[in-house]
Design goal:
about 450 residues; binds zinc ion; alpha/beta; five-stranded mixed sheet
Length: about 450
């Protein structure tokens, strides 16, 4: 059978007869898909042809097709402090303490090239939508989010820009140095300005804004409360780090007399507009509360292993009603920004925790696509079905590592794919033959390395 929407007026492209395809639904898509005007118009069963004329045909017989991967938590600026000597081999709190002082020297030029590099790296790994959690606004970097919006527009990537914040410095019992925090009034005024400037509230939105106080140990209770009110007022999403480590749980108990989820509830954040990075240390009752509220969880397997933070309980959280998605987390705790690699790591870490017959490779694909879309509050991306936006990642299995494979979809993760051959966003090919037309990667690396060296030299 052919599933289709009303025939479009403008030229359509048939992405024909893929080697394998994972759509996120039960539909037979072996005949490929028809895309038009940034939207998927038809999904074709084996042997079926488009119901109307197509202007172009793309032979996908050597490609595995996935919905574009969705990264729901990152810190782009951290690409400048990968494998940073004083941060090596540390758990979260001492790791943060060793890096806050470096990050405090960030400049607009550094953030711009870090954003460019992270988005490019993500794109090449099959990622089509990314949420960045930016919470550093030192003097001179007041327009950090506007810089990121400009870079995302230039590259043509879909983004959730999160207006991060820190308002609780060391002098007041917080973790970050005083020089890295802002006042609640400044944060809220900028948050409102950014929503009004950049937030698109429509299907196919390329840029959305969310409010994202950094973590319980770096923001004040008042800022959490006021951010929740503003998110309600403007109908935008809320994001923060929560339950990443037991140090954080101890901090909440000592400062607020509450465990992390009780604290979240006390500040008005236990709602379906909230998504949390990590979400590791929850008890049974907390998982029930989060599920009933529909709070989204971003699982960050590489980062959790790097900092030895723990393992996200994806199965219990999903069963309770929480959308679960994936994120690469910041590039100082991963340290790469490769989404297809993150999907592989999620499969392995969760399989180690729950068993080989419980976690399937398709679970990992689901988290990175449909799950991540739900985490970001979107129903227009994350699967391949009529009416969804045409965000696609196509991989070839022509490297030595895949030779001898039988199940092409499983081979993508088991063989360790790390680069897409083609990526389409909103109907436009952004990656062609494993490269970005118009982007000089050598020049980008050179500029980024220079910025990283300059940042380290300011210490
Ligand atoms: Zn993070």
């Amino acid at each position: 059978m052919i599933s289709k929407l009303a025939m479009p007026d403008s030229p359509a492209t048939w992405i024909k007869n893929p080697l394998a395809i994972w759509t996120g639904s039960e539909a037979d898509a072996r005949g490929g898909i028809v895309v038009c005007d940034g939207q998927i118009s038809e999904v074709l069963a084996q042997g079926q042809k488009p119901s109307g004329p197509v202007a172009q045909t793309f032979d996908a017989s050597e490609h595995v097709i996935l919905p574009g991967l969705i990264n729901t938590h990152h810190h782009f600026y951290q690409t400048l402090t990968r494998a940073y000597p004083t941060a090596l081999n540390k758990a979260l709190f001492p790791w943060l303490k060793s890096l806050y002082v470096v990050w405090a020297k960030l400049t607009p030029e550094m953030l711009s090239v870090a954003t460019e590099l992270a988005l490019t790296e993500l794109l090449l790994s099959g990622c089509t939508t990314a949420a960045d959690h930016h919470y550093l606004f030192p003097d001179g970097l007041e327009h950090a989010i506007d810089i990121q919006a400009g870079v995302a527009q230039n590259i043509g990537m879909r983004m959730t820009l999160t207006r991060g914040s820190m308002s609780l410095g060391e002098d007041d019992g917080g973790l970050p140095p005083q020089t890295t925090v802002q006042t609640e009034a400044d944060i809220l005024a900028d948050s409102e300005r950014l929503i009004k400037t950049w937030h698109e509230n429509k299907p196919g939105a390329m840029l959305q804004v969310a409010l994202a106080p950094c973590s319980p140990f770096s923001v004040t209770t008042e800022l959490m409360q006021e951010s929740a009110k503003m998110a309600d007022q403007y109908d935008v999403r809320l994001h923060t780090h929560l339950a990443e480590t037991l140090d954080e749980e101890a901090f909440c108990l000592e400062r607020f007399g509450l465990r992390t989820v009780d604290y979240l509830q006390s500040v008005g954040w236990l709602s379906g507009r909230t998504w949390l990075a990590h979400g590791i240390h929850f008890n049974e009752m907390e998982i029930r509360q989060l599920g009933e509220a529909g709070v989204g969880i971003c699982h960050c397997p590489n980062s959790n292993m790097m900092l030895a933070s723990g393992i996200c309980r994806t199965q219990e959280l999903e069963a309770a009603g929480c959308p679960v998605g994936l994120g690469v987390d910041g590039s100082a705790s991963n340290d790469h920004s490769n989404m297809i690699n993150e999907v592989r790591q999620a499969m392995y870490l969760q399989r180690l925790h729950y068993g080989a017959d419980t976690i399937r490779h398709t679970d990992a694909f689901r988290w990175a696509t449909q799950g991540s879309a739900k985490v970001l509050g979107r129903d227009d991306i994350g699967e391949i079905s009529p009416g969804k936006r045409t965000d696609l990642a196509l991989f070839k299995l022509d490297e030595l590592r895949f030779s001898g494979h039988h199940d092409a979809l499983a081979a993508l993760l088991l063989g360790g794919a790390n680069q897409a051959d083609r990526v389409m966003i909103e109907g436009q090919w952004k990656v062609i033959d494993g490269a970005l037309p118009d982007v000089d990667l050598e020049d980008l690396k050179h500029r980024h390395q220079a910025a990283a060296r300059l940042l380290a030299s300011l210490m």
